[in-house]
Design brief:
Strand content of chain C: 15-25%
Oligomer: heterotrimer
CATH superfamily of the largest domain in chain A: MetI-like
Order of helices and strands of chain C: HEEEHEEHEHHHHEHEHEEHH
Low-confidence stretches of chain C: 1-29
CATH architecture of the largest domain in chain A: Orthogonal Bundle
Number of helices of chain C: 11
Distance between the termini of chain A: 53 Å
Radius of gyration of chain A: 28 Å
Shape of chain C: globular
Structural class of chain C: alpha/beta
Largest interface: A-B, 89 and 84 residues
Number of strands of chain A: 3
Low-confidence stretches of chain A: none
CATH topology of the largest domain in chain A: MetI-like fold
Mean pLDDT of chain C: 82
Largest sheet of chain C: 6 strands, mixed
CATH class of the largest domain in chain A: Mainly Alpha
Mean pLDDT of chain A: 84
Radius of gyration of chain C: 19 Å
Strand order of the largest sheet of chain C: 6-7-8-3-9-10
Number of domains of chain A: 3
Largest sheet of chain A: 3 strands, antiparallel
Chains: A mainly alpha (347), B mainly alpha (533), C alpha/beta (282)
Amino acid sequence: MSAAATHPFQPQPSAARRSESAIFWLFRGATYFVLLCGAVVFLNIFVKGSRTVFQTQAPFVNTAFFTESPESLYVFQWQGQKMELGDKEFRAFKEKNPAAANVKAESYVYCAGGIFPCIVGTVLLVVGSMAIALTLGVSAAVYLNEYARDGTFIRFVRLAILNLAGVPSIVFGLFGFGMFVIFFGWNVSLLAGWFTLAFMVLPVVITASEESLKAVPKGFREGSLALGATKWQTIYKNVVPYALPGILTSSILGIARVAGETAPIMFTAAYVVRDKLPWQVDHFSDFFFQGVMALPYHIYVVSSKIPQNEYTERVQYGTAFVFLFIVALIATASIVLRSKLRNRYKW
Amino acid sequence: MASSAPADDTHFIAYKGSFRLFGLTLDDCIRVFFGGNAVVSIIVLALITYFLFREGSGFFGQNRDNLTVYRHAGLEYVDFIRTQQDDHAALTRYLSDLRVRQFTHYTMEKGLSLAQANAALASFDDFAGQYGDTVEPIRTLVSDLTEQATAIKEKFTVMEDKKVERTQLLAAGKEAEAAAVRIVPIDFVVELKPILGTLPAYREASAEFAKRLTAVLADAPAMPARELQTRMERFQQLNAEYMAGFPAVTRNLETWDYNKPVPVTQAFSSFLFGRQWLTASFWQDWYGVIPLVVGSIMVSLVALIIAVPLGVGSAIYINQIATPLEQKFIKPCIEFISAIPSVVLGFFGIAVLGQALRALSQVSWLSWVPGFPYSERLNILTAGCLLALIAVPTIFTLAEDALNNVPRAFKEASFALGATRLQTIIRIIVPASLSGIISAVLLGLGRVIGETMVVLLCAGNRIAIPDFTAGLAVITQPVHTMTGIIAQEMGEVVHGSIHYRALFVVGMLLFFLSLAINYAAQRIVRRYRISIG
Amino acid sequence: MDTLAPAPTLRPPSAPAAASSAPGSGPAPAAETLIEIDHVDFFYGAVQALHDISLSIQDKKVTAFIGPSGCGKSTLLRCFNRMNDLIDGTRIAKGSIKIRGIDIHRPDVDVIELRKRVGMVFQKSNPFPKSIYENITYGLKLQGVSNKARLDEVVEKSLRGAALWEEVKDRLHTSGLGLSGGQQQRLCIARAIAVEPEIILMDEPCSALDPVATAKVEELIQTLRTRFTIVIVTHNMQQAARCSDKTAFFYMGKLIEYADTRNIFMNPANPQTEAYVSGRFG
């Protein structure tokens, strides 16, 4: 033992070593602290939100919360009991019990019912804006990666994309308001929201698409061209199909961003409340020119625009739960798909 | 030439297809189509600039009109005197602060009961009361003048509205109705006469005020402790300075001319350097962006102070120290955090973090922390903490990329010389990737400064420059931000009004700020990039 | 302009296409020149890669380009089907390249048509990530051939032509990426001959292959020489000696010597050539 301990390479305890391990622990602490903070936010919202979203009896999910519109909650004393009824129930109750017609009820706005219109609105906004952003973004990426030759013009385009990525979302909101809502006269509408959001994620989509196109080996292009394919045939048959999974996967992150943003839709597409569902329109064209309710805006409204009381927490956490769940699902999908894709395509 | 070649040998010549559009082949058209899409990003950037300017540019003209009315209707004149009154109020607040200090001194150090302490302060309270009353003559004057000036402004507004009404009627072709709209032109000289006529009364009131002040200050009570006595002396000195300013006020009033034109630059400077953002006020609207800018900067600063060590630290940890298993697990987790929508974080701030931080601040053994304890649940600190959570993933991802780009050879060479891991990280890896890390921090700043929902929900939304005399405790005060003000007020303003345009100008400021930050980040990366290979 | 006259048949009447499917119909005239390179100067941006190259490549022969790395042999090869168009800043400053007497850089030459006639096999095998069958039919489908029977026929013929049929006939619909390196390269050759080009350009086709696979490809070149004009760029002098009829030696962007392969290796006229083929440099 003692012989082994005296060899020249044995570890020397020193101040440097101790401080090294201390500093490594500091870094480790920082990392796990960040994770902890994230976890606290998630857990808080999932735990408190699940009280609204789930229930103890079958079907265990509060279906009404997902399928109904928001409505006011009425709280009143009835025959010595405290009753809490939603707007519709309350009216039905009054019809059933004529004696209750003049009962004094406290009303709490948005605290009953569900968030169905908000979910629908968010889905519509995401689908429409991503359709626009993907069309524009993928085409732009194809041009940049396949056609463009380096020059002043391309440098400008790249600079524009880089800078566009840094513009705050509220500025996109202002721009959308000034251009689509006011100048084009679309008012607060789906269409205005679509374009505002699409322009906002455009840099994300372009960058993601270009990465994927770059990953397709040069040999595919040369091989195809050498067989007498035109440039377009090459791109369409032998480049884009192989880049497409990558493009879509990376664009999912864009979807998460579109779904999560509030500021751009505040003045372009979101209504505080709307009785009709988006498909209840007189004309087909009206569909595009209607405002919608949206989950993120609803969270904003219920958490700061209405008087706070014991009943608001239910709808606040419920909405936040659903919203966070959707966004987290999209983000997880993107992360998982991306790691799968990395393993799959190795040419 | 082609025809000269034998027909059987020309098989690869000029069969470029028959499709032509404006002289372009199909392939050219496709190319142009894609190219057009690439230009969209430039167009969008140009459109953003254009529309911000289009909606915002009218602001400066309107602001100048706004300032002109302020002068014409005599509001400015009245505000000279009002400032005098406000300064006095500030001095009164100094006295109440002094009282609190004395009170603490009596109860804590001398061990007196509350009643005894109050009794001991009786003479001081008497003094403070008298001091507060000295301003009476001025106050009466100001309140009279306020009414008169407001009336003039009101008349002017009515006239302007009538003018607009007539123009609209004329535009609609309703000549008769337009003619029926009676516009009474305002003769400001006449209207202002009663206000200007109060100058002798002011002189009298001011002299009276000065006399009373001197009298009251002459028998200021002695302070029980040396430190407090110094404060009292400071108070005396402040008052001396204050009274020395009286003649200047009088001179301002004497030389004031309602017809002096408002310079164009003032429309800009009153926005860029204005210290008040005051809208929908009965007296005068001010659009000074300084409180908002300061709010944005303070919140971002707090966020960065928290986020930079965490973000860069975890990037170093993941890139250099962590085991592969940790890397595989933590990287997606941090990316996951970046997916939390900001409105959810804002809600979390309102519902949980604000309360939690306030509760923390009231823990007694933490009272040494500047600003603790505090009572405003929503403030710079709350918003800053949440924004830090937004900035960390951005900084982490970009800094990690930068660390990753350091060539392996650097690290190996350092190890080969017998350096420890920490030495290698500090002396080789971090310096080599410093430009990337700095640009990561800058982009994190860009993200934070442009963030809307968190600050709207959690920064407290008080439009005022925070009180920097509080030292570090300033971070526990509520503020309002550039992004927050747009989000909050845009939905409520009248389209085309000066307020509406002011919000667009704030947007413009944000836009250029973000461009500048972006540009700086790119510059740093490009300038200090190490050439690899 | 008779150039706009009827859509081109795949095969020019003069080319003895039938000959390939019916061997024994006699070899083509020995000295017919197919590609005529006339004093070509070629630039990558400001860098001159080829200096005044003149060379004529004969029909139905295997011509090998040899020389050290960076001597310009691949560059010249890529001029024949204008693949250099894809690289920014390249240009032919002087001279002309004529195929059957037609300058292929003439503005009215359709590069697509040119490439259909001049096939290419690359250094790194590049099967598309599609099935073997789709790889072969890719070129034909581009030309609008959709007849299943015809496609099947071409696939079999091409794979047989590339000596790959026996190995892959049971898995035509599996991915081409699943083949071994040598098989992939032969698949690429099969893909190139499926469109029935006149000329096949091979850019170091064996540089990434092991000796056994190389032997197979060389064997294949021997069988293809009756049907196609082959230009092969190689690093491997033995390979040039084994499978080519004529050899051109390039050095520093200049053509040093061009002669019958036997002469180049046995009796080089130029001392540089001798030094190179005897392995003293390069």
